[in-house]
Amino acid sequence: MRRGARGVQELDYLSDPDAAVRALTVVLDVDPVAEEHPGSSHHPPSTAHRWDALTLWEQRHEGR
Prior knowledge:
Layout: H1 17-28, E1 33-37, E2 46-51, E3 54-59
Antiparallel strand pairs: 1-2, 2-3
């Protein structure tokens, strides 16, 4: 996506997380803050990419 370009980019649950972060960074015009979360017996390890009021959770399903 280019700044000033008109169009819509579709992102879904299985989209590449790096591509989603790049696209949202362009649209929001600010870099996200990344917070690492180690996970637990109930939640997989993840990274929270935060732009003010928007958070994109990138879960990493490791092993089984």
